[in-house]
Amino acid sequence: MEKKAKSKEPTKAKLANAETASIDEATQQMILRAQELGVETIFDRAVAMKPCNIGTQGTCCKNCGMGPCRLPLPKSGIEGEDNRKGLCGATANTIAARNFIRMIAGGAAAHSDHGRAVAEVFMSAARKETDAYRIKDPIKLREVAKWLDIPTTVEVDGETLDRDTDELAVAVGEKALGEWGKAEGEVLFAKRAPKARYETWKKQGVVPRNIDREIVEIMHRTHIGVDQDYRNLIKQGTRAAIGDGWGGSMLATELQDILFGTPYPLATEANLGVMKEDMVNLVIHGHEPVLSEIIVTVASSKKWQDYARSKGAKGIQLSGICCTANEVLQRHGVPPCGTFLQQELAIITGACDAMVVDIQCIFQNLANVAACFHTKLITTHPIAKMEQDNVIHIEFDEHHAVEDAERIVKLAVDNYENRSSEVMIPKQKSSIIGGFGVESIEYHLGGTFRGSYYTLNDNIINGRIRGIGGVVGCNNARTRHNEGHIQVVKELIKNDVIVLTTGCNAIACAMEGLLTPETAGVFCGPGLAEVCETVGIPPVLHLGSCVDNSRILLAAAEVVKAGGLGNDISDLPAAGSAPEWMSEKAISIGHYFVASGVYTVFGVTLPVSGAPVFQNYLFKEFEKLYGGMWDLEIDPVRHARKMIAHIDKKRKALGIDKARDRILVDMDTRRAMESA
Ligand code: NFS
After folding, report:
1. Could you tell me the distance, in angstroms and rounded to a whole number, from the CA of residue 211 to the centre of ligand 1?
2. How many CB atoms lie within 10 A of CB 440?
3. Which domains does the chain have, with CATH numbers?
4. CB of 325 sitting under 6 A from ligand 1
5. Which residues of the chain have pLDDT under 50?
């Protein structure tokens, strides 16, 4: 038989279907545009390459040179004893637990190292080694000082005076930096959790000693032949995750607020349509706001706007991707041009004159995409470089922050005239209100008069607000871009659950127009709509970047403190969610939510399905230990309904499951109720 000659034609790469890849029209248009130009994006790669079935189950061990040992669940399931083991005898539970807590270590390290970098810049600013930064929120400085056990007053001639701000800032910076590696004691912010929560952690032996140590210990315990009990492994994962949420991430948020200003609500726009054809487009991408803060100042200065005009542009348009976007959005109103999955698309517009990146969530493929256009891709962080030759590295240092920012802005402006290909910027963009925080929620819902979370609690108790949903996290190219985010959030607000959002979920909601007060009348249940319309807030509150999930923890602690809803976060009618997670940071966040007492549902997949006993421990047994537990639900509507069911369970336990009749009370009755 004659053999068929093999075709010499290169096989055509499979391409993504734009409509099934994303729910967002701007994204769909740009996927098609990329395909038309022959530029490959993550959407195409996700079609061409399937994930590993064993890795997604969490049961591939490559922690030594004898493996990888692969222990997938047999197709027929496990009947009787589970005899699967690696060469050393490690069970599926041990392997999945080791992998899981290594993900926590990766995520906690990323958040915490970000926090440390901010603390270092904070120290330089406090010591006046740089004049690019100064303390912008002295009130928060004093509050944080108290939590770090630093005296905020001094006695002078028998008089108690406020300590000098600069001197206090140095003391805060030094103490904060110590939190990463101090030899004794425990992470000080753990005491910011409600007392009952702290007691639970004490009882379980998971109060972190310092931030770094818990991460290092994960690496030790997961080395071959060390910890081989999934319960003990995850206990260490819990300690490291608490060290992230209530340590590294919280310090990052607090120090950034002190240094750059505590966010208050402001208006801007979101999606690729914020880029402007007749302006220099400089896109800021990454996570650490220390450089982007200065870029915002430089780029908006008259000097540089004039320079852009001298080059024929109408000015400089900044926009952001990922969490750097959330940082400069919440403090300056810089519009986000997209979520994690849209980073390549911003360049494919042909209008991105420069993209400046720092750390985390940055595709290496940006360099390949930038090479197809005139875009200058600039890395800035000593720990995050790229091997491709077309990438420019301008190493940022806070001691010459303004000079660095000016070099970057100049590169972008000078590149404006080099636009070669036709520009195609999608028109889509939505108006948004972003930049909420623990303080502004208190102000908006409590007012200056009350100054507490009482009003929020009151509305939860009377049933207008059914509960609180913390919906956060990434995009994941294995699922339709933004579909999970939007469906989960819409289902929650439809059922009167107020949503606190951060990270890429926040940007997805922004793009969908959910971050406006007007949304309330359209998508919310009647109770939540009434509250939002009365106080003029959106039903979905943008709380910032992923390290700012610490704001959700602190808001939850405030709700507990305000009273009437139990003694602990685990008593609250609240639930967490990451519908499209993909990063190790998301696993660390999910785990500190759970350890803080929150029922937390993830979408897409969770790498524990190959180890049913370990999975059951996380999904069920954990509730007995911490009051919070994990869950996985791929279908977004069912995902939201599971959260609502949990919220209802908590309402019932609190005895507030039957909403009180909404009767108008006169002042005398109200006074009587309040004094009761
Ligand atoms: Ni969070 Fe922010 Fe987005 Fe995911 Fe990445 S940007 S830190 S990790 S992808 S939400």
Report:
1. 21
2. 17
3. 92-260 (1.20.1270.30), 272-418 (3.40.50.2030), 430-675 (3.40.50.2030)
4. no
5. 1-2, 661-664, 676
